[in-house]
């Protein structure tokens, strides 16, 4: 288990058409630290956003895509994405409200 503080777990929100379409179901999508566990993501969301109560966390690991520039090969960085579902009686997360 990684020794991460709650403010180091969530890196940034995911703002895409598919992630915005599930906001009505109280599902929020974040890019999280690759070593973060589901329990750490739940703890971070509840501490960072007042009034949020997490019902479930689903995480996905993504490998980097292969890229090429001339004869040099490389790849984009790998990342971890988390979809957080809030309970029905919890408050909404404000950073997504203006979208």
TrEMBL record:
InterPro entries: Nucleotide-bd_a/b_plait_sf, Ribosomal_uL23-like, Ribosomal_uL23/eL15/eS24_sf, Ribosomal_uL23_CS
Naturally occurring in which organism (per UniProt): Anaerotignum propionicum DSM 1682
Keyword DNA-binding set for record: no
Family label: Belongs to the universal ribosomal protein uL23 family.
GO cellular component annotations of the record: ribonucleoprotein complex; ribosome
SUPFAM superfamilies referenced in this protein's UniProt entry, alphabetically: Ribosomal proteins S24e, L23 and L15e (SSF54189)
Domain of life: Bacteria
Pfam families documented for this protein: Ribosomal_L23
Stretches assigned to coiled coil: none
Name the record gives this protein: Large ribosomal subunit protein uL23
The protein's role, per its UniProt record: One of the early assembly proteins it binds 23S rRNA. One of the proteins that surrounds the polypeptide exit tunnel on the outside of the ribosome. Forms the main docking site for trigger factor binding to the ribosome.
Keyword Transcription in annotation: no
GO aspect biological process, one term: translation
Assembly with partners or alone: Part of the 50S ribosomal subunit. Contacts protein L29, and trigger factor when it is bound to the ribosome.
GO molecular function: rRNA binding; structural constituent of ribosome
Keywords from the UniProt entry: Ribonucleoprotein, Ribosomal protein, RNA-binding, rRNA-binding
